[in-house]
Design brief:
The protein is of the alpha/beta class. It has a domain of about 150 residues: NAD(P)-binding Rossmann-like Domain (Rossmann fold, 3-Layer(aba) Sandwich), CATH 3.40.50. Helix content is about 45%, strand content about 15%. It is built from 15 helices and 11 strands. Strands 4-3-2-1-5-6-7 form a 7-stranded parallel sheet, with helices on both faces. The chain has a 4-stranded mixed sheet with strand order 9-8-10-11, covered by helices on one side. Helix 2 links the parallel strand 2 and strand 3. Helix 14 crosses helix 15. Bound molecules: nicotinamide-adenine-dinucleotide (NAD) and magnesium ion.
Length: about 375
């Protein structure tokens, strides 16, 4: 029996996680759920899974959830960022799904690492911000890190068994998002809804915009660097519009191992929940004979300049990836609120990186200082562009 905390339970990954869990009530017990401000959705999840704890963003949201649950379930409702760290480190929990979006996920995910949990990592931003420190904590406390991001889960599945070696390159696949063929001039005026209409995946709005700019792939290159201890030079990105091959590992003998499947996050989630075993995820079987032909092409960096920014940030090291991530979060939020054009997302991030070169990230405090400084500069650039 695995005992779970789900951080970000009300989001796209959280809901898919609980869908897999509900298929195997004999194998999983939900101990804690966190839902930020989505009272109604978290209430339904609490009634269904009867967790011991639920965590909301603040007192008002927590009070609303308590009232909604009164007399029906004994869940204790907590609130605030400290409570997220608390439910990530509970003694009675062995597995933590880290599915909060953005920098807000870093502290609770670190708390899970320090408590030596099995961490199912969806929150890639945590690793982008402070990969070195994060991996150090994972090792120091004997935590187990299993990637949920479909590409990294695929790479994990294709990696050699211990001591075997021989890896030459990691090949991350990318769909190219909704604007792969949109004329460049039209990209200036695309709307948030167009950007979030991903051809293959149904995801939260922030990662959907990241997929449209391909910053998502950039963040994933940095994520792969830390997860698989691989330098930027040995991580390549290839566009694969069908999202059937979720990524590949190339070996020195010329072998290329790929993991395939229908694009449904329940596959990597079930893989990590059950690892090293396998579990039915509810995902329909892949039928290659009737699926569209699989195509591959190199990414166009004029169309997707954010991808280059991420490679450059990884090579620059220190707090530069944290600066990149923070500027991206601010720019994407402004785009989603119709305060910034789609193409300007890249301009804001590039401007922020230019203003904040070579910051160190030797401690978590330095990482959060860089994050705050970058948000400040990104907001100022957005103000100047408006
Ligand atoms: P989402 O927007 O659907 O859900 C985000 C969750 O985080 C929600 O439960 C929300 O309540 C919570 N949340 C938001 N802000 C918070 C804050 N400040 N503090 C605490 N909780 C907060 O996002 P998603 O698509 O589920 O993505 C979650 C993470 O998983 C992201 O890091 C994303 O990059 C990663 N990811 C998602 C997918 C996918 O298919 N959706 C695939 C790969 C990786
Ligand atoms: Mg991914």
């Amino acid at each position: 029996m695995r005992r779970l905390t789900v951080l970000g339970a009300t989001g796209s990954i959280g809901v898919s996680t609980l869908d897999v869990v509900a298929r195997h009530p004999e194998r999983f017990q939900v101990v804690a759920l966190a839902g930020h401000r989505q009272v109604e959705r978290l209430a339904e999840q609490c009634l269904r899974f009867e967790p011991r704890y639920a965590v909301m963003a603040d007192d008002a949201a927590a009070q609303a959830l308590r009232e909604r649950l009164r007399g029906q379930v004994a869940t204790e409702v907590l609130s605030g960022a400290g409570a997220l760290e608390q439910i990530a480190a509970l003694d009675e929990v062995d597995t933590v799904m880290a599915a909060i979006v953005g920098a807000a996920g870093l502290r609770p995910t670190l708390a899970a690492a320090r408590a030596g949990k099995r961490i199912l990592l969806a929150n890639k931003e945590a690793l982008v911000m402070s990969g070195g420190l994060f991996m150090q904590e994972v090792r120091a406390h004997g935590a187990t890190l299993l990637p949920i991001d479909s590409e990294h889960n695929a790479v994990f599945q294709c990696m050699p068994t211990a001591g075997q070696g021989g890896v030459r390159r990691i090949l991350l696949t990318a769909s190219g998002g909704p604007f792969r063929r949109t004329p460049l001039a039209e990209l200036e005026t695309v709307t948030p809804d167009q950007a979030c209409a991903h051809p293959n995946w149904d995801m939260g709005r922030k990662i959907s915009v990241d997929s449209a700019t391909m910053m998502n792939k950039g963040l994933e290159v940095i994520e792969a660097h830390w997860l698989f201890d691989t330098p930027a030079e040995r991580i390549d990105v290839v566009i694969h519009p069908q999202s059937i091959v979720h990524s590949m590992v190339e070996y020195v003998d010329g072998s290329v191992l790929a993991q395939m499947g229908n694009p449904d996050m329940r596959t990597p989630i079930a893989h990590a929940l059950a690892w090293p075993e396998r579990l039915d995820s509810g995902v329909s079987p892949l039928d290659l004979a009737t699926s569209p032909a699989l195509a591959f092409e190199p990414p166009d960096l004029d169309r997707f300049p954010c991808l280059q920014l991420a490679f450059d940030a990884l090579r620059a090291g220190g707090a530069t990836p944290a600066v990149l991530n923070a500027a991206n979060e601010v720019a994407v939020a402004a785009f989603l609120e119709h305060r910034l054009g789609f193409r300007a997302i890249h301009r804001v991030i590039a401007g922020t990186l230019h203003a904040l070169p070579h910051r160190s990230a030797a401690s978590l405090d330095e990482v959060f200082e860089a994050d705050a400084a970058a948000r400040d500069i990104a907001r100022r650039i957005i103000g100047a562009l408006a």
